[in-house]
Amino acid sequence: MTKRFIYIISFAMLLSVVTGGCRKKLADLYYDPDQTVQPSIEKFFTEMLNNNRVRPSYWNIRTFVVMHTGIYTQSIGYLNTTTAYQQNAGYTQDRWNDFFRPGIAANGNSGIMAHYRLIESLYESITDDQRKANAEVFLMAANVVMLDQASQIVDLWGDIPFSEAGSVNTSGSIVMPKFDNAVEVYDAILEGLKNAALYFSTTQLPTAAHALFSKQDILLNGQFDKWQRYANSIRLRLLMRLSFVNEEKVKTEVLNIINNPSLYPLIDGASNYTPVTTDVLLQPLTTYAEDLHNALSEVFNYSAPDHLLNKVMKPSNDPRIPVCFDKYGRTEGDQFIPNADYNGLPVSANAEQQQVNLGRYAILDSATFLFNSKLPGIVITSSEVNFLKAEAWERWGGGDARAAYETAVRQSVSFYYYLNSLSTTLRTPLAQPAANVVDTFLQSDQMKYAGTINERLAKIWVQKWVHFGFLQSVQSWAEYRRTKYPVLQFYPSTLPGYEWPPSRLVYPSSETSYNTNYATVKDKDVRTGKIFWDVK
């Protein structure tokens, strides 16, 4: 396997030179040939969905995940350099820009807020009642996407420009947007998601209008039921994130959602779970031919993480190991020596010790992750939703927490084998493990749903962290800070002020230098500050 890995590295580097970008495929969806100077709502909607911060693009993985959230969650292997925990100001500025502004960087990200404000403005300008009714579906779907992404910006930074952000696209005036309190932003997001879910549960469109929405909807193919489930599921995620802040209020709302599936359907795979049709996944465009091998190898992030593999997965004989990792090996002289077992890169060693011994440790699976051009962007999965349900029922009663936990784990196993099945260039995809294999896994001492309430909750939280992996490290970092699980040990850096990972990102220079409203949040702008839901 490792000889193949080395060969494919060379081949893939050649391939990357001759493969082009994927955005040309969007031309017929984004540009209206009959309205070359007046873009339409549906075109902006498609461009808004085409988000390489959702998809596992080179730029997002290389500059944000492996340098920030992947390290803070230990969902990625990394070297314990002195700057490991230091935020890269340029790359986090890019992440900020890619939410608020379109086309700032050369990485093709969509500027969620800017596009949403354009859609709002165009919608308000429509005077014909029928046209406006037909266009509302684009506004509501765009709102769900914007709110989902805005919650992630809050989770990374805290207070953010929100209510006045992007106002140049609605008012025509350049306004330095105020920083809205993170609590108020979350409240607005939750209310907006609730209203959007209600809209999609009742709306009906003329056939032609629905067909247009389906054509432009590259995320959910115009399925109203799935948009409703998506909105409800993000709302559930965010309510649970608040559950240690305002527990009684959250308890009432969450139990109302998860105990009334006919009113509040979720992305949970309750009837029949198939990742590609059940989960909310942003598929790569058909012309996309790149992969993550460069993003994960340029600064040695392909090694298997210590805690994930050595402390969690190996002790339980986790059936996901073969599709998550390769054993790898090392070359001595002219002889390749394969590793006998899967072992993660020790987090307790210094960078020099780690680097000279990289070949002795497992790496991320080459078929599933390194050379898989078909990896989708993960918006939300059934496994996550069922872990949320398990936590809620464990803490507050009203449902079968054990069944939800076991369902979530089974779905996670299925999900990672699905990702592996998407890559067919390196080897034949591995077959899904038999049901009895997963049954045995769930009954192992490490996995069995038993013990005190705190022990059971810990199992839910740790397994959700496993499921998130590095592909959803933004969600993983939020949940790690909220729950304090898993219990991770970090190697202390010798760089003063950056000895340990941060608990939030500091604001980019675009805000500190140019937004006059920065003064209202300046005192909070420290890397040791906490997001309001981080109280445990």
Automatic annotation (TrEMBL):
PROSITE patterns: PROKAR_LIPOPROTEIN (PS51257). Keywords: Lipoprotein. The keyword Lipoprotein applies. It comes from the Bacteria. This is SusD/RagB family nutrient-binding outer membrane lipoprotein. It comes from Niastella caeni.
